[in-house]
Amino acid sequence: MTGKDEKMNKTKQLFTHISSDNELSVNLKEVDVPSPKSHEIVVKMQASPINPSDMWPMFGPADLSKAQLSDDKTTLTAPIHKGMLGRVKSRLDQTLPIGNEGAGVVVAAGDSEKAQALIGKTVAILTGASYTQYACVPIQACIVHHDDTTPLAAASSFVNPLTALGMVETMRMEGHTALVHTAAASSLGIMLNKICLAEGVQLVNIVRKQEQVDLLTQIGAKYVVNSSSDSYKKDLYKAIEATGATLAFDAIGGGDLASDICAHAFDKGLTYGSLDNKQVYIYGGLDFSPTVLNRAFGMTWSVGGWLLMRFLGKLDAPKVAELHKRVADEINTTFAIESSEEL
């Protein structure tokens, strides 16, 4: 191992804890930085996003309107209604690191040739513990960026970009030809639109507001359906009929949106449905209410879950490397994002 000096022995890192006494605490602690093993690197973190996927691990079901910050500003506490503890039963009384991803500069490395070659490079990392000053991770958990890419630009290299790419790859792997996507005006949704436009993939976008329709239309989206419109279901049917989409990715989860896609689009008016397999993947939980399926559609369909890491686990190493390279090559174009606030 070379490169790690005395200053990197300690790091300040954020942790989250939910107690069985109904209290959340988020703590800033000083902890040791591990010496990197042969295949590991130490990254001096410079930027890390707060995605929706970070919010639940960080805060759980806490009532943040009643949160309090300690005098030394190292601990935030907030109450949790006792009836909500069942949602986080598996993590009660555990102190957990937080922060799915981020980016920085490699300042130390293990003794393998591949690890040593990364010293001084800007890398994005996927770690689950990125809210820290120094992170020690395997080189396999990195995307190496070009020399002119800033850590700020590289910070969101995994969750949104690879999910968007994964949706298109899943479409091809499972024999579909077009997509439906809900919550489509999100950062991820905009990335997915750019990918589909570049690759000639038909995409039906479902949004909730007219300004979101306008946003996607401005970047070239052809099919944008407003779920708050009086003509929503008719518009959805027409868009899916026009594209031939048989695969949907739903970020909402709860309610009857998945059912709407099946009933009013995929198999409208068919007793047993078409022979083509229709698939709705729920990949998010913006609505925690039950998923309701009103069975007004045929028989050749499926509703299930989709997770990025499990999808990536199905791919061989060259394919994963190909996706990583595309993210690095297009981080300032296809996969560029604007943060709503910088802390």
Give the gist of this structure.
It is built from ten helices and 18 strands.
**What is the ordering of alpha helices and beta strands?**
EEEHEEEEHEEEHHEHEHEHEEHEEEHH
Largest sheet: 6 strands, parallel
Overall geometry: globular
Number of strands: 18
Q: Identify low-pLDDT runs.
A: none
Determine the number of helices (DSSP H or I, runs of at least 4 residues).
10
| Helix/strand structural class | alpha/beta
- Mean pLDDT score: 92
Strand content: 25-35%
- Within the largest sheet, what's the order of strands? 13-12-11-14-16-18
Rg, Å, rounded: 22 Å
Distance between termini? 33 Å
* Residues in helices, as a percent range: 25-40%
Question: What would you note in describing this structure?
Answer:
With 343 residues, the chain is an alpha/beta fold. The protein is built from ten helices and 18 strands. The protein has a six-stranded parallel β-sheet with strand order 13-12-11-14-16-18, sandwiched between helices. A hairpin with a 5-residue loop joins β4 and β5 (75-79).
Keywords:
343 residues; alpha/beta; six-stranded parallel β-sheet; 18 strands
Write the layout of secondary structure elements.
Elements: E1 10-18, E2 23-32, E3 40-47, H1 52-59, E4 68-69, E5 75-79, E6 95-97, E7 101-109, H2 113-116, E8 122-126, E9 134-138, E10 142-144, H3 151-154, H4 159-173, E11 178-182, H5 187-199, E12 202-207, H6 210-218, E13 223-226, H7 232-243, E14 247-250, E15 253-255, H8 257-266, E16 278-282, E17 287-291, E18 301-305, H9 308-312, H10 317-329
Parallel strand pairs: 11-12, 11-14, 12-13, 14-16, 15-17, 16-18
Antiparallel strand pairs: 1-2, 1-6, 2-5, 3-7, 3-9, 4-5, 7-8, 8-10
